[in-house]
Design a protein that fits this description.
Strand order of the largest sheet: 3-4-9-6-8-7
Number of helices: 13
Number of strands: 12
Radius of gyration: 29 Å
Order of helices and strands: HHEEHEEEEHEEEHEEHEHHHHHHH
Helix content: 40-55%
Number of domains: 2
Amino acid sequence: MSFYLAFKEMWRNKGRFFLFSLVIALITILVLFIAALAQGLALANKEYIEKLNADLIVFQEKVELSTSTSRVGLDKLNNLRRVPGVADVGPIGFSSGSLVFADGQEALDVALVGVQPGKPGMPPVYNGNSFRSDRGYYAVLDGSIASRNEVKVGDEITIKTIVGSEDKFYQFQVVGVTDGRQYLYQPSVFMPLQTWEKIRPQASIEGQNQSDLVSNVMAIKLTDPENWEAMAKTIESQVSGIEVVDRKTAYQSSPGYSAQQSTLNTQQGFTLLIGILVIGGFFQIQTLQKVPQIGMLKAIGANNKIVALTVIMQIILVTFIGVALGSIGTFLLTLGLPGSVPITLTGSTAILTIATLLLIGPIGGLVSVRLAIKVEPLTALGM
C-alpha cells in the first residue's frame, strides 16, 4: 500500500518530482567530482612514493621530511646496508625539467628521478627494458607520458634543464615504459643516478665530482617488512644524521598534501550537508502542501505506519533517481575532460560516495516524516 501511494503521487506530479531529482543529480555530480578531484590530486602527489618497491624511506634529519631539501650522501649507503634486517638500499634523486617536443607541442614539465638499476626506487618496466648501467642517457618513462604524447620505446626525447643561467638540452633514448608514477603532480622520467646528477638543475655550470654525489632520499627494503617500526628506530640509532619513516608518512609530509586533502574533504562534507538541507526542505514543503490529503487518509483508516512508509518511499525513490542521473552525468563529464585534469575515481571511492548520497535522502526527509505522523485528521480537514 505504501509503495502504491508513493508511486501514484509521484506519477501524477512527475514534472515536479523529476525536477527535484535533477537537483539531487546536480548535488551528486558536485560531490562525486570533488571526490574524484581529491583522489586525483592525492594520486598525482604521492603516486611514485606510494608505489615504491621499498618499506622505509631515509631522509636527512631536521628537514621535516622534505624531499627537495633532504640530502643523503652516498657514503651512508654501505652503512645502511650493514644494518641487520636491511635487505637492500637504493638512492633516489629528485629534480625538475621539461620534455621538449620537436613537432611544436608545448613543453611538458616532468619530474626527473635518478635511480640505480635493480635497486629499490627503480620502477618495474612493463614495455621495453630497464637501463642496466648507472651511466648513459637512457630513460624509462611514466606511462602517462607515453600514452598522452605518443612516445614509445626506442624514441629519442629531449630534456631541458637550467644549469646556472643557461638552458641545457639533453638527448635520451627511451628504453622502457612503466605505469603511472607521478611525483609532485608531474609525470616522471627515470634515468641512471649519475646521469641525473650531470643534468639536474644546478646553480653552477660546473658539474659536481663523483665524490660529492648525493641523493635526496634512500629507499630501504627489509627482510621482515612487518617489523618496519622497530627497524626504523634501529637504523636511526646505527646511522647518524638521518630520519627514517614509512612510505605513507613520507608522502603525507609532502608539501601541501594534508592541507589540500583537508580542504577538499571539507568541501565535500559541506556539499553533503547542503544536500541534506535541500532534500529536507523540499519534502517538508511537500508534506505541508498535502496535509488535507494525509488527514483524509487517516480518517478512512490509514495508520501512521502507512503514512510514514509512504513518505519514506517517496524520498528513497526520488533520491535514487537523482543519484543515478548524477552518477551517469559524472561519468560522461569525466570522459569529456582532458587528460591533464587530475580526476580519478576508483570503484571503492565511488561506491562509498554514492552510498553516502543515497543515505542523505532519508536523513534529510526525517523532518517531513515526523510532520506527516503528527497530522490530526479532524484538524487537517478543518473540523
